[in-house]
Amino acid sequence: MARIISVANQKGGVGKTTTTVNTASAIAARGKRVLIVDIDPQGNSTLGLGFDKENDDENVYNLLISDTPAVNVIKKTAFENLDIIPSNIELTGAEVELVNEEERETRLKRGLEPVRKDYDYIFIDSPPSLGLLTLNSLVASDSVMIPMQCEFYALDGLGQLLSTISIVKESFNPRLVIEGVVITMFDGRTSLSIQVVEEIKKKFKDRVYDTVIPRNVRLSEAPSFGQPIDVYDRNSKGAAAYDRLAAEITGIKEAH
Amino acid sequence: MARIISVANQKGGVGKTTTTVNTASAIAARGKRVLIVDIDPQGNSTLGLGFDKENDDENVYNLLISDTPAVNVIKKTAFENLDIIPSNIELTGAEVELVNEEERETRLKRGLEPVRKDYDYIFIDSPPSLGLLTLNSLVASDSVMIPMQCEFYALDGLGQLLSTISIVKESFNPRLVIEGVVITMFDGRTSLSIQVVEEIKKKFKDRVYDTVIPRNVRLSEAPSFGQPIDVYDRNSKGAAAYDRLAAEITGIKEAH
Ligand SMILES: Nc1ncnc2c1ncn2[C@@H]1O[C@H](COP(=O)(O)OP(=O)(O)OP(=O)(O)O)[C@@H](O)[C@H]1O
Ligand SMILES: Nc1ncnc2c1ncn2[C@@H]1O[C@H](COP(=O)(O)OP(=O)(O)OP(=O)(O)O)[C@@H](O)[C@H]1O
Ligand SMILES: [Mg+2]
Ligand SMILES: [Mg+2]
Predict the structure, then answer these.
(1) Closest-CA residue to B25 (of B9, B41, B36)
(2) CA distances to A7, A158, A198, B183 from A201, in Å
(3) Within chain A, which residues score under 70 in pLDDT?
(4) CA-based torsion, B58, B63, B67, B72: positive or negative
(5) Which of A128, A216, B118, B124 is the most buried (most CB within 10 A)?
(6) Out of A127, A192, A223, whose CB is closest to B129?
(7) CB neighbours (10 Å) of residue B202?
């Protein structure tokens, strides 16, 4: 049975997509079967793994709105053990369409139920908001991974995110816990980065991953080739960091 | 009569708030009367100018949902010639509440009409999405300023943004034009930055501002003091860049 993990933070640009794609890839390289669900209308995880989000194939929109079975929307990626339910431009309208639907918060949860047994991990890349798409992601998940930039605005947004998580836990999904906070784009040369990390560790204590992801330009180059970092540049600082994170999450030290 | 400018881009973390706060402040320092409207539920412009977004005062939510007059929600900031209509945490629910309302796209436009004569510029800081809040911002505006990070995912998102702008122009607001693209967080040492800038200039030609905003840590420190960059550190590279941008927009070379 898969562990379902939401990668969520309503603050924009904190590394949700980069963390989803590269953590999933490093775990798949350890022989685990991994599925990524891209529920962000921007479709960056879809694009970052080499897919076109404007094609006519069925995708996460069909799963959410027309109850298409998950097996019909899952695509194999070019990378072993890694599948994806891609996003699509139609998803932009989904939030408005879902508002008046029955059971609007549990559509993704019900859609993923039949395929949980086929995977070890399912990661859901969420959009930068706390609307119905992110709610669907949180309701469907066992835990939440929170990517965090070392910036003042990102720190301020944590309060709203934590209160949304506890509302979802109370009303829809009692099993939801925080998987951990991943510090991203860390630049040790700035005192701001160091101050924010201290604040995060004070607030989250042992729920902050030991692995810190440094700022590394290779991570932002890889998506333009449609590849995760461990394929694009295995020797980069970015690849090493996401490899350590995968080891921390799975307990499996090395990729096969 | 104020020029109303939306600062919009659904890609998260590209510098919408940083550009709104610092451009508005540099224009106010040239003796122009400026209003910022913070329509992002995150409330980062509100926070970045020293306000608390959890207080009970009336705010942009009341303007949108209960037709409270703008004069009742406008607050003076600590900075001369610069006012704000602050955001509030209640705004998170506004998108869902607006869906079934009459004239849901034109609420901000009608709300700002009575105060247009009191300002020279009105900047609207938008959330990282293309939902009803951003639509309200585009419908209310004369033009759109697009902050752009020099990154692959940000470049990919431009297509969706441009098609949303043309849909709004056709259906709601025929006067809407692109004010310009502002290149943000530019780091000349990476070839990715240089490649993306070339792509943007090819696509937008003369609608890209000459002023390029460099990556500068002082810009991300200023919000924690509730100050725009020209107050926090007037001698920084970030302050100089936003000062040049304000000169480019207004044609007024120097702050008073
Ligand atoms: N550690 C890093 N070092 C350098 N660049 C990074 C790093 N992590 C992410 N980036 C780049 O920063 C930008 C923002 O990251 P990303 O798109 O993953 O964030 P996000 O939270 O998914 O954004 P959104 O809120 O729009 O969904 C991207 O262009 C990405 O390539
Ligand atoms: N030129 C710059 N140099 C360094 N840091 C910057 C610069 N511009 C913005 N930042 C920082 O980068 C982060 C993202 O910027 P900002 O919050 O303004 O983007 P945004 O588009 O408003 O994000 P969101 O999509 O969440 O609304 C912030 O922490 C900000 O302080
Ligand atoms: Mg993303
Ligand atoms: Mg912002």
Answers:
(1) B36
(2) 19, 13, 5, 33
(3) none
(4) positive
(5) B124
(6) A127
(7) 9
Residue B132 pLDDT grade (very low, low, confident, very high; cuts 50, 70, 90):
very high
Q: Could you report the per-residue pLDDT of B48-90, keeping only the tens digit for each?
A: 999 998 888 899 999 999 999 999 999 999 999 999 999 998 8
The two three-digit tokens of residue B61, written as one number: 């939510």
Q: Which residues of A touch B129 (CB under 8 A)?
A: 41, 127-129, 131
B93: amino acid identity, one letter: G
Write the pLDDT tens digit of every residue in B211-232.
999 999 999 999 999 999 999 9
For residue B42, give how far its alpha carbon lies from the nearest alpha carbon of chain A (Å): 7
pLDDT band (50, 70, 90) for residue B122: very high
**Chain A positions with Cβ closer than 8 Å to B:** 10-14, 17, 41-42, 44, 47-48, 89, 92, 95-96, 99-100, 127-132, 149, 151-153, 156-157, 160, 190, 192, 217, 220-221, 223-224
| Gap between the Cα atoms of B44 and B223, Å rounded | 9
Please state whether beta strands A143-149 and B143-149 pair in parallel, antiparallel, or not at all (unpaired). unpaired
CA distance A256 to A224: 26
